[in-house]
Design brief:
homodimer, mainly alpha, Arc Repressor Mutant, subunit A, 2 domains, two-stranded antiparallel sheet, 2 strands, elongated, DNA-binding
Chain lengths: 152, 152
DNA sequence: TATTGTTATACTCTATAACTATA
DNA sequence: TATAGTTATAGAGTATAACAATA
């Protein structure tokens, strides 16, 4: 029955194929990144926070940062504690509203982030060289749509 | 300078675009899954272990399971402890070699895994309906190549 | 002695609830 | 009173190193 459903419904065949490949991708990506970041004494959550901070030129508040990195603020407090300890970010009171904190990447943080990203780019170049320009364009567009639908 | 490099080198432009989108995808996927699994009282690592167990009809040893789920065995011991506690898997001595353990999904475990996967399929169908069959085929093939290159 | 797996330890992440300081 | 953020607490994941049981 499942077989005949699939024969008559190519969408459903693709759903199963993509379900498997996306779950595989998600976990493999996470574990791989976890191990690569260990060489830099970083965790995946810390790296996500560092990436999120790139988007804020004037420094981010704790709440903005938590939202951008998909965490709650209590969790982000601990993550930033350790990034401050490692001198990767600074956390300073906003003079205008002393309840608010401004978190910014230090020079060291910016450099470290760039180093990690360059390492990832090496893998990506190898991957992209194996697919055609058309496939590349479609891939980027389709991943964008995936993000919209699943996390939009 | 970076701009002129990119103008003359479409590959490098794609590297930057895909670097961003893949890191975004990796973290968003992880956090989303973490939150969705909480409703089932599961963690992402437990779910990865459950998925890995599907591939073993006769039950998996701890070392096989650890490798399939990309963990070391000491970590897997703790994960399986909690899956046994929740009656999602069983862990039994192999009579032929009493050093070895055989881990298998219970009926409850199989059912729970199917429930989670069906929930993910609902999102996937919505996504796939928004892209053409050609794009789907390319997407599956390209993701497969990505997995080969990056985690090969 | 070699292999299979667990235990001990230390640290990080995570969510919830209660709390402090400032507005 | 409302807002921004931290602290306290409890549980889970992770790697390393030392250990026990079996072959």
């Amino acid at each position: 029955m499942a077989a005949s459903l699939q024969e008559n419904n190519p969408l459903e065949t693709d759903v199963e194929a993509i379900e498997h490949v996306m779950l595989q991708l998600g976990w493999a990506t996470h574990r791989q990144l976890h191990q690569e970041l260990a060489e830099f004494n970083l965790t995946v959550s810390q790296f996500a926070a560092m990436r999120a901070l790139q988007g804020f030129d004037e420094g981010s508040t704790m709440s903005e940062l938590a939202e951008a990195a998909r965490q709650i603020s209590a969790t982000m407090t601990g993550i930033v504690d350790r990034l401050v300890e490692s001198e990767i970010v600074t956390r300073q009171r906003d003079p205008g509203d002393r309840r608010t904190l401004r978190v910014s990447l230090t020079e060291k943080g910016v450099g470290l982030l760039e180093k990690v990203k360059e390492k990832k780019r090496v893998q990506l170049r190898q991957f992209l060289e194996g697919i055609s320009p058309t496939e590349r364009k479609i891939f980027v567009r389709v991943i964008g749509k995936y993000l919209d639908v699943v996390y939009g």
